[in-house]
Design a protein that fits this description.
The protein is built from 5 helices and no strands. By secondary structure, it is mostly helical. The radius of gyration is 17 Å and the shape is elongated.
């Protein structure tokens, strides 16, 4: 049976790849349909959307690799994820897409996604798996 940490890595990879792929390969549609941008799309908006997608795809691939690797790699990925989440929250609060910024108390997007990511990584660390001894 796979460990919670492995399953969490796979779930986080699916989340990241699901967000990253359309941001890279269909930035205009993402900006218009998901974020509700109207009018002309600036080159910088398309560029930033694509770059966010590239980084998110990398994150997803790294989680897939961690899922297939040893427990110490999964632990490192979950720690990296936990460290990055406060920066994501900072951007949401200080450079929001909309005014006012998303309300944490009302769990407006993207807070549920950040909470799921944080929860999966924290529980993975709490439910630490032991590395198998060599030859076992």
């Amino acid at each position: 049976m796979p460990s919670f940490s492995k399953v969490a890595c796979i779930l986080l990879a699916v989340m990241d790849l699901g967000v990253g792929w359309p941001n890279v390969f269909n930035s205009a549609s993402q900006l218009r349909d998901v974020f509700g941008v109207r009018g002309d799309l600036s080159p910088i908006a398309l560029h930033c959307c694509g770059i966010i997608g590239v980084q998110t795809i990398f994150h997803g691939v790294a989680f897939l690799w961690a899922a297939s690797s040893v427990p110490s790699v999964r632990k490192a990925m979950h720690l990296c994820n936990i460290v990055s989440l406060p920066f994501s929250a900072f951007v949401q609060l200080n450079a929001p897409l909309n005014t006012p910024p998303p309300q944490l108390a009302k769990m407006e997007m993207p807070w549920p996604i950040l909470a799921i990511q944080l929860g999966l990584s924290l529980f993975s660390l709490v439910l630490t798996e032991k590395a198998k001894p060599k030859g076992a």
